[in-house]
Amino acid sequence: MSLLREIDGNVLRLIIDRPEKRNAIDEPTMRALTREFAAIDHASPIRAVVLTGSGDKAFCSGADLGGEAASFGPQHHRPTTVYADLLRAAARLPVPLIARVQGWCLAGGMGLLAMSDMAVASHTARFGLPEVKVGLFPMQVAALLQSLIPRRRFAEMCFTGEPISADEALAIDLVNYVVEPEELDAKVDWLLARLVDKSPTAIRLGKHALRAIADMSVEQALAHMEGQVALIPLTQDAAEGLAAFREKRAPVWTGK
């Protein structure tokens, strides 16, 4: 199996397990990831997902060009690509998605990084869009990265195909944290601990709202959020959180 899954309490860890290919993703891997994301709904006990790759050489080096690379491009019998459907499933994920990045993160792997809500990288990680080196262009990845990376830096990465370091990725907010390789897991666990003790209902509703306003004008976003602000106080988690605050105790979240 090219994708491993581990459950640690209320955290799901998904591991691309193709180290001999630098964790390049083929169609079975993409479909497996899509299924995992689609299986997490608003009633799921999962509170966060961590995505990473096997070994220390690569997070994901993109498409397996020696395998079923056509999965990244159009197929005449269907209107969408397998890769874009994976990105869509990740966008609909109702819980935070954290990328644990070690080694190379290239091409389609950059799309996996872009679809994550947060990212922690090893100091040895390298990030790049090398498609132009083989006569291609990161078309689908660009749909996500254009809003994450400053325009001129993004253009340089796309047109030169040259990678950037973990420190450079941190400087342009492509990742949240950069640590030494031996500290990577501890930093991911630290970030998870800051997430899973919070209200799952507030996070689900908040993530949904942030996704909805991403392409709105300020006036449109304010109008949308005015409607949303009345919803959260009606949840059980909000009632519990306010009661716990008044009673000076830790809240016990129901996720409802």
Automatic annotation (TrEMBL):
Q: What is the designated name of this protein?
A: Enoyl-CoA hydratase-related protein
Tell me the domain of life.
Bacteria
Family label: Belongs to the enoyl-CoA hydratase/isomerase family.
Identify one Pfam family in the record. Answer: ECH_1
Q: Which residues form a coiled coil?
A: none
Name the species this protein comes from: Novosphingobium mangrovi
